[in-house]
Amino acid sequence: MKKYIVKDVLYALRMALNHIICNSLFWSMIFIVVISKNNGNTNQKIDYFSEQNQTITYVFLLLLCITFIQSFIIFFANCKYVIDFEKGLFILPRSDLEHNILEFIFLISYINLMRKKSIPFEEIEKVYMDTDHTKGKKFSKKYRKGNENIVTAFLFLFPYFAKCAFYPWWRKRIKTKYNMNVIGIFGSAHLQFSNQRKRDEVRNALHQVIRSSSTSKKEDEVGLD
Question: Running DSSP on this structure, what letter comes out for residue 45?
Fold first, then answer.
């Protein structure tokens, strides 16, 4: 087996959707503020493609296109983990690596969402798991009773967007986050997975890597003796 690939499409899809939603809302709010100031306080209907507004509108549409392209890149950068036994590399999303304050200031952590990192096997020293359980709040029975059709339609049409972004309290539930920490000479990486099975697959492959590297080190020490 030269390569062992674990695909976590659901987690990558969540990251891409979060990026689309947050960035689209951010640029939309800026667009509304700028276009309103550009047209003054008139009550007339705004023509977004008029000579006065077309530059602002085209810039906004360009930013939305860039947001969608970046979301595709984020999806493909975070959708799989590769344990390459032939090259001796563990390839993982760079977004899960620990950051320092300078990376946040210069937006390097944002750029890292679209990048991958290759770690040599000999730099990996320890792998341990971390399962986080968080309990959600109960959705208001009074509101739910009076607005059942609206809430149901909203949750049906936008399941992830509604539950995770706006209505995380819509029912009493326990959210479980499946995390794994990889520590070594390279530093540390905090990996997140959509379910336990994906995490265990990567963990088992890395444990095999650590065992084989420790065995080779012992053999080298015996050879030197």
Answer: P
